[in-house]
Design brief:
This protein has 16 helices and 16 strands. The radius of gyration is 21 Å and the shape is globular. With about 425 residues, the chain is of the alpha/beta class. It folds into two domains: about 120 residues, Urease, subunit C, domain 1 (Roll); about 290 residues, Metal-dependent hydrolases (TIM Barrel), CATH 3.20.20.140.
């Protein structure tokens, strides 16, 4: 048995529960001062006041520890869950980024041969080893931000061979570094050039050939689709997601980002695990998400910021009793960042979220968005020992020290994996 004892934490701040939090309940953060956390074999066994935890350990006759961390002067929060990323790819698009900043729209760039297809070309040329090295480097960046669980999508192959290569590399990365990776197939990221005038033919390829291969090799848990203007419409998205669910996949959606095609409505009706982006979501769709209560609304403020778009209506979603998560959308086009401090700054200052709501959105609700809330997203007995030490004594410094990474240490599955 391996164990870890953390004592004298100035403040343990965590949402509580094993399911997503809806609406104003997102602001309910449990605070423990002079706190302690006791971990055995990667699982939290005890949480509470330091003197109470130490007394219980003495009663049980536990006095030997593999590691003891005195966290005086520090706050501890759950490990962050970045529940929407495209971090595995080859090729950068700096010229495109500058064109967008200068006024070109996402669709203009895409129609001129840029956008997703530009990264597809580079990723198709990359070997598994090259992709693995790139992915490992980016995951290391995330650990330093306090991320302990991340969702990773394919979607830069758009053909059978490269999509499977991306998914296999994601599987390898999941076993070769500390972070847990929730793996998503996003072949429906765009219509590839070879199917430029035949979206129906590409859908048929995904449904009849690629999805069964992914299921047979157990390469992904989720299937995602980009339901938006110039990509896949409502009916096409529904066809793909129904086929995926029939094969036993859980489903996610890129919805209502560029235009409103009622993607959030489809997500609610099909009981998608998450509906992501939602910049153009309608009030009627917000009501549907609230009534169904099955789908996490995952908002991606860094993308709206980089695209110079309006932000998704976080306040309306929360006040309507929806469950909201926050994620980076880390990708080489519209959000080339995995910055947790930037997410927090934008969510609080631009989206009118409280710091308690933000913490829940980046932890417990993020975990729910990758179907992992039973084991992750909060500091509670029975949950995975994934937590982050801050260099300040109060979790609100995550917002107050604006735009600065205040992570001091990261514990993943009861092991110290990063220290600054």
């Amino acid at each position: 048995m391996s164990n870890l004892l953390v004592i004298h934490v100035d403040q343990i701040a965590t949402p509580v529960g094993k399911t997503m939090k809806h609406g104003l309940a997102m602001d309910d953060i449990q605070i423990t001062t002079d706190g302690a956390i006791y971990v055995e074999d990667g699982i939290i066994v005890n949480v509470g006041k330091t003197d109470e935890v130490l007394t219980q350990l003495r009663i049980k006759g536990i006095s030997d520890f593999d590691e003891v961390i005195d966290a005086k002067g520090q706050a501890v929060v759950p490990g962050f869950v970045d529940s929407h990323t495209h971090f595995l790819y080859a090729g950068y698009r700096v010229e495109e980024f500058y064109a967008r900043v200068s006024g070109s729209s996402y669709m203009e760039i895409m129609n001129n041969g840029g956008g997703i297809q530009a990264t597809v070309d580079s990723t198709r040329e990359a070997t598994e080893e090259e992709l693995k090295a790139l992915g490992m480097s980016r995951l290391n960046e995330m650990i330093e931000q306090g991320v302990t669980t991340v969702e990773g999508k394919s979607g830069y192959g758009l053909d059978t061979e490269t999509e499977l290569r991306q998914l296999r590399v994601l599987q390898e990365l999941n076993f070769s570094q500390p972070l847990d990776i929730a793996i998503t197939y996003l072949g429906a990221h765009a219509v590839p050039l070879e199917f430029q005038n035949d979206a129906a033919g590409y859908l048929k390829l995904m449904i009849e050939e690629i999805l069964p291969k992914i299921k047979k090799e157990k390469l992904a848990e989720f299937v995602d689709v980009f339901c938006d203007e110039g990509v896949f419409d409502y009916k096409q998205s529904q066809e793909l997601l129904v086929a995926a669910k029939n094969l036993g996949f859980k489903v996610k959606m890129h919805a209502d980002e560029i235009a409103n095609l009622n993607g959030a409505e489809l997500a609610a009706n099909i009981q998608a695990t998450s509906a992501d982006h939602l910049i153009k979501i309608s009030s009627e769709e917000i009501t549907q998400l609230s009534e169904k209560k099955q789908t996490v609304a995952t908002l991606l403020p860094c993308t709206a910021f980089c695209l110079q778009e309006n932000f998704a209506p976080a306040r309306e979603l929360i006040d309507s009793d929806c469950a909201v998560a926050l994620a980076s959308d880390y990708n080489p086009g519209s959000s080339f960042t995995c910055s947790i401090p930037l997410i927090i700054a934008l969510a609080t200052f631009k989206m009118q979220m409280t710091m308690g709501e933000v913490l829940t959105a980046l932890t417990l609700n993020g975990a729910a968005a990758v179907n992992a809330a039973e084991k992750k997203g909060s500091i509670e007995v029975g949950k995975d020992a994934d937590f982050v030490f801050l260099k300040y004594p109060d979790y609100r410094y995550l917002m107050y020290n604006t735009g600065i990474n205040v992570v001091k240490k990261v514990v993943k599955s009861g092991k110290l994996v990063f220290e600054k």
